[in-house]
Structures are given as structure tokens and as C-alpha cells.
User: Which sequence fits this backbone?
């Protein structure tokens, strides 16, 4: 007998359970019907436990009896490629024609604790599941989903709801997630996503989760460098596909994690404790070596290990043995555990209450047996007695799980995440501590302008004086018109990176203008003119670009070190476009090359205000009709002003 049938029959589902199979009169003690059409009364949900070749007919039959939804478990569709892709398209079309919503195919169904709906066959469903945690899960992969459900249950995280969407022929992760974040029984939603076919739905999900006060933790696969698109621009070549996803997530305070362990740990942390207010972590350990590792791993992920306040250190000195350390990391030594009497919990509370601390990482080593149980109970009581807004506490237990089962269970029951790895713990804290970013500025309409220089000028960004000449003989007069010394640039269809193509001459005077222009026209294939441009005084070269929204994601502005070595330095920062002045300044401050703007090695400081203004103006091109990308490289930032020296415009 299929697992879903047995579980629906035996686990308190209040609705009717109606088996359908022409070979049986009864299944599991329940009347069995030969066809869906023979089932008496209304049907809400059909679980299609049929092979792939029967899926379309089952969906059509479900529609004919008025069912609202069908779960198709069968594989052999788009995941196998070829004919499977076409078969899945036919399945989705059949569902639309039948007027039913389709979960799957190639999925493991769903479980909803409140209604005791066990519409799944995952082996993880064999566990006792009551749905008491307030944590829900939705994801594409059935195997990953089963692992999440099983590991969560083994750690006392009894998921409130669990959904596997499979190939997402109709219902996808974002749609299910939007329903779950609005559920009052769900306080934290964990999501595993491989593909987000409708980015706008994810944007709405992130915004709705924030509005509802539901913490959202997302594990997304397929975010590697190999996913980058080939692009003509410098920015396109360096912009990962996940950039807009990351920025949308950050804007709404979504916690992004990298594996299942982090997904569950972050969900536990956000369900039972407050989110870290910032990146400052205090470590409490009995091992000096573990403390050093904690400092290193914190630095790897952008966390800091602050100095504790003098009053805190004085109080700690009364509890920590003299051969320990009251600095951060706090080394209590093994002697403190022998003292008992709640001393360890008191130390952790003192550290937690220090004004410089946003989170506490407790690192335990080979503590087992009764000592481990007592210590876990002490620490659990400390967490339970903490004020509602106290910094969170996580534990790294560097000992075999089989020797520390009871202690780990005590901590997890108190809502304390327990890790076996310092690196994983720091990654989770860093992800949870990422503050929600300021929202993008309101978009402003920009008329369609097909010439790059005209668009930049219309945006109000300063540009050099320029004259376009179709023949070399006109170049001397043009050089004189722009100040007597000029940069000459060949103009040709499809010519994007002029320096690499040898299509630029710098510092050309009136006397040499005709010869240099003639050489450019002869050298560059398809050259139709020469742009004679005023020489701009040296300054800090930046790249500033904005796209019109790649793959239906919101538009992104990119700021970084510019010039011909942009890809070499790969010093970039991103934000959703358009940006405010504060965001533009924050982007500049995040660059490794920011010291150049401040005046490196005696150079005069650059006009950062002008750079900020130019970034804001360029970012407004996100609202331009038909824009694919506008790139200014370089934007030369001098001591008094910023000038767009070269531009690239791509239209969709």
C-alpha cells in the first residue's frame, strides 16, 4: 500500500481519502473506485501515483471531476531532456485546459501539519511529525527536501509544512513560498531553489515575507561562475547571474545560505532567537586553539571579533581562572567546567550582555557524559533567561555526535543551533547578520535615446567637448575646436572596446591630427568616422554601468575600478537601480580602490561628490525604454568634477 494512502488514513487527516484503482475493490480497508469519475462527491486534490505516460490522462480526469489541484509524482519529464521537455509542456497545457493547478511532475508532494495532510511518499515521512516548530520548507529537489525533513526531525525541528515542487511545470517555489509566508503558523520559511522562472514572483515573495515578519532563509544552487553570460561590455563579462537575486534578497533581509546544514541552522536561529544586530562576534571557549580558529573564520566571512568593555573583563576575571583569558575570544579553560555551579552560563551571559557584542559563539571541545549534559543545561537556561532582544547564542561542539547526543538535544530544544564546524557557524552568523539594504530609489522615466553620448548628456553627466569628423582632413580644425590637444577614437559599427582594437590615439595636436585620423580610418575595419574628443586631465578612473534588468530581474547598477584593466582588478560593487546618493557613496566606500579617491601617496583627493552625482545620474538610465545596458568606462574623477570619457550603449 502506498505511503500517502496509509499516512492519510492513519495520521488524523479529517477529509475523505478515496483510493482509485481499477484492479481493487478496497485498499487499506478503504473502498476503492475504478475511475475518478466513479468517486462520489466532490474531489479537492488528486495524488497521481501513476507512470509518466498516464499523467496527462489523470490530469484531464481530475479536471473533469472538478478537482482543484493534482500532484504528479512521476519522473521522465523535462529533467531527462529531449522528448521529456515536450511531454512536460503537454502536461502543463493539459492542466491549464482542465482548470487544475499542477504540483510537479518529478516531485515528492507535500505535508501540512495543521490539516494532517501527508501527500508525499518521502521516507522522511516515517518520522513522527507534529508540526510544532513554526518552520516551513519548500524546494524543488525531492532528495534535498527529504534530507531537510529528516535531518530537521532528528534535531527536534518538527516542520510545520513541507512542499516539494519538482520540475515546476505549473506551481513553482516562489508561489508556494508566498502562501507559506502569509500563514500565521509559519514564523520561518526555509527555501531551496534551483530555478526561479519568474523573478518578479521572487521579488514579491521577499517583500511579502518582510512585511509579514516571516524570516526567509534561501539556499539557491546554480550560482557558479560558469553561469555567467557572454557579453560585449566589461560589466556583462564580470556580472554573475546571481547578482540581482542577491541584491533583491539583501534589500528585503533574506538570509542566503550555502548548504542544508546552514539552512536548518539559520532557520533554528531565526525561529528562537533574535537576528544579530551586526557583525561583531564574541567567542567563548575552553581551547585557545579553537579561539584562534574562530577569529580566522570570522575574518573570512566579514565578521569582526571586538574587544570587550573593561567592566565586562573585570566581571569575567572573577569567574575565569587566572591562566585563562578574559579577552575576546574568552578562554575559560577546562577548569571552569570542573567548578560547576552555573559558572559557565554566567560567563556566557556576561559576554552576551557586552555592548560591543552582536552574537556569541560558544565553542566546546571534548566534553562528554554528565559534564556535557550539565553544561548544556546551564547554557540552555542562560539563553532561556535572556531578554527578548539579547544577542543570539550558537554552539560549536567539536566532539563526536554519538558522545554528545543528550547535550546537543538539550541545546536544540532550547533553540540553540549546534554545529560541528566553526566555519559553518561563522557563515550562518554572517548570513543572519547581513542587514537589509536600503531600497532602490524611485524609477524615473527616461525617453528612448539611441545614441550613447546623447543619453549620457541627457542624464546630466558631464562629457568632454567632442567633434565627429567623417574624413581625416577635418581633424585639425576639430582638434583646435576642442582645445588644441585631443583624443582621437575610431567610430565603427560593433566597435566596443576601442583600446584593445588599437582604435584610440591620445594627446594628438593640430599638426598631427590629419595623419593620425587617416591612420585610424585605415586601421580599423569598417571605420566610418573619427571622434575628436577633448583631452580630460588625469584622475581616478571608475566604471559605472546600469542594465535594464537581466532575465526579468530588477535593474542593477555596477560601480568599480575602471579603465583598460577593469577585468584584471575585478573591484566591483552592485546595487539595485536607480540608486540614492547615500547608496552611491556606500558603493564607492566598499571598493578596494577607494584609497585612490582619498588621495593615494600624496595625490590630491578626488571629487567624490561629483562621482556620487554621476553614479546617481547614470543609474537613472534603468528607466530608459529598451535599455539593455549603459556603461561609462572610464568615468574620470578629478579634483574638481567627474567626466564620462567613454560610453557603451546596448539596446534590447
Assistant:
Amino acid at each position: 500500500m502506498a505511503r500517502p494512502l496509509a499516512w492519510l488514513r492513519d495520521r488524523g487527516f479529517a477529509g475523505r481519502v478515496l483510493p482509485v484503482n481499477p484492479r481493487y475493490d478496497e485498499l487499506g480497508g478503504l473502498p476503492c473506485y475504478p475511475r475518478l469519475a466513479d468517486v462520489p462527491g466532490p474531489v479537492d486534490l488528486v495524488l497521481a501515483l501513476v507512470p509518466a505516460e498516464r499523467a496527462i490522462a489523470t490530469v484531464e480526469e481530475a479536471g473533469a471531476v472538478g478537482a482543484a489541484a493534482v500532484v504528479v509524482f512521476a519522473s521522465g519529464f523535462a529533467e531527462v531532456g529531449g522528448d521529456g521537455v515536450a511531454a512536460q509542456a503537454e502536461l502543463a497545457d493539459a492542466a491549464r485546459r482542465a482548470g487544475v493547478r499542477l504540483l510537479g511532475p518529478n516531485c515528492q508532494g507535500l505535508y501540512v501539519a495543521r490539516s494532517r495532510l501527508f501527500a508525499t511518499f518521502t521516507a522522511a515521512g516515517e518520522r513522527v511529525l507534529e508540526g510544532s516548530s513554526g518552520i516551513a520548507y519548500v524546494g524543488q529537489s525531492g532528495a534535498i527536501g527529504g534530507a531537510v525533513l529528516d535531518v530537521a526531525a532528528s534535531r527536534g525541528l518538527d516542520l510545520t509544512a513541507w512542499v516539494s515542487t519538482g520540475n515546476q511545470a505549473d506551481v513553482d517555489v516562489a508561489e508556494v513560498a508566498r502562501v507559506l509566508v502569509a500563514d500565521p503558523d509559519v514564523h520561518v520559511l526555509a527555501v531551496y531553489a534551483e530555478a526561479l522562472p519568474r523573478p518578479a514572483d521572487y521579488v514579491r515573495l521577499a517583500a511579502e515575507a518582510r512585511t509579514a515578519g516571516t524570516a526567509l532563509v534561501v539556499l539557491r544552487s546554480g550560482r557558479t561562475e560558469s553561469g555567467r553570460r557572454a557579453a560585449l561590455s566589461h560589466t556583462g563579462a564580470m556580472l554573475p547571474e546571481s547578482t540581482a537575486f542577491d541584491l533583491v534578497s539583501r534589500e528585503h533581509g533574506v538570509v542566503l545560505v550555502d548548504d542544508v546544514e546552514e539552512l536548518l541552522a539559520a532557520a533554528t536561529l531565526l525561529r528562537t532567537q533574535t537576528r544579530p544586530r551586526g557583525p561583531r562576534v564574541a567567542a567563548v571557549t575552553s581551547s585557545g586553539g579553537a579561539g584562534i580558529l574562530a577569529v580566522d573564520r570570522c575574518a573570512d566571512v566579514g565578521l569582526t571579533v571586538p574587544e570587550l568593555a573593561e567592566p565586562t573583563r573585570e566581571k569575567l576575571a572573577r569567574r575565569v581562572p587566572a591562566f585563562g583569558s578574559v579577552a575576546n575570544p574568552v578562554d575559560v579553560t577546562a577548569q571552569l567546567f570542573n567548578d560547576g555551579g552555573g559558572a559557565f552560563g554566567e560567563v556566557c551571559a556576561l559576554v552576551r550582555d557586552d555592548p560591543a557584542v552582536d552574537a556569541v559563539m560558544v565553542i566546546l571541545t571534548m566534553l562528554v557524559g554528565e559534564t556535557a549534559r550539565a553544561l548544556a543545561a546551564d547554557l540552555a537556561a542562560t539563553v532561556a533567561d535572556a531578554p527578548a532582544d539579547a544577542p543570539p547564542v550558537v554552539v560549536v561542539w567539536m566532539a563526536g555526535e554519538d558522545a554528545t547526543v543528550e547535550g546537543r538535544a538539550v541545546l536544540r530544544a532550547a533553540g540553540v543551533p549546534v554545529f560541528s564546524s566553526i566555519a559553518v557557524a561563522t557563515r550562518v552568523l554572517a548570513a543572519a547578520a547581513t542587514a537589509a539594504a536600503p531600497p532602490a530609489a524611485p524609477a524615473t522615466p527616461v525617453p528612448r535615446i539611441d545614441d550613447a553620448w546623447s543619453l549620457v548628456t541627457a542624464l546630466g553627466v558631464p562629457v568632454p567637448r567632442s567633434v565627429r569628423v567623417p574624413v581625416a582632413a577635418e581633424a585639425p580644425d576639430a582638434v583646435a575646436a576642442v582645445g588644441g590637444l585631443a583624443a582621437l577614437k575610431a567610430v565603427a559599427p560593433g566597435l566596443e572596446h576601442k583600446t584593445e582594437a588599437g582604435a584610440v590615439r591620445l594627446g594628438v595636436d593640430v599638426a598631427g591630427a590629419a595623419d593620425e585620423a587617416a591612420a585610424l580610418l585605415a586601421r580599423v575595419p569598417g571605420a566610418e568616422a573619427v571622434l575628436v574628443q577633448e583631452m580630460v586631465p588625469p584622475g581616478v578612473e571608475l566604471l559605472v554601468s546600469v542594465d535594464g534588468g537581466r532575465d526579468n530581474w530588477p535593474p542593477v547598477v555596477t560601480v568599480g575600478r575602471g579603465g583598460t584593466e577593469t577585468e584584471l582588478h575585478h573591484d566591483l560593487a552592485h546595487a539595485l537601480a536607480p540608486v540614492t546618493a547615500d547608496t552611491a557613496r556606500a558603493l564607492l566606500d566598499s571598493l578596494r580602490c577607494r584609497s585612490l579617491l582619498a588621495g593615494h601617496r600624496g595625490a590630491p583627493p578626488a571629487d567624490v561628490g561629483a562621482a556620487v552625482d554621476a553614479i546617481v545620474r547614470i543609474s537613472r538610465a534603468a528607466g530608459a525604454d529598451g535599455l539593455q545596458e549603459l556603461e561609462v568606462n572610464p568615468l574620470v574623477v578629478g579634483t574638481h568634477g567627474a567626466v564620462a570619457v567613454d560610453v557603451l550603449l546596448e539596446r534590447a
In short: Confidence is low (pLDDT under 50) at residues 225-238. The longest strand covers residues 627-637. The chain is about 35% helix and 20% strand. The longest helix spans residues 83-98.
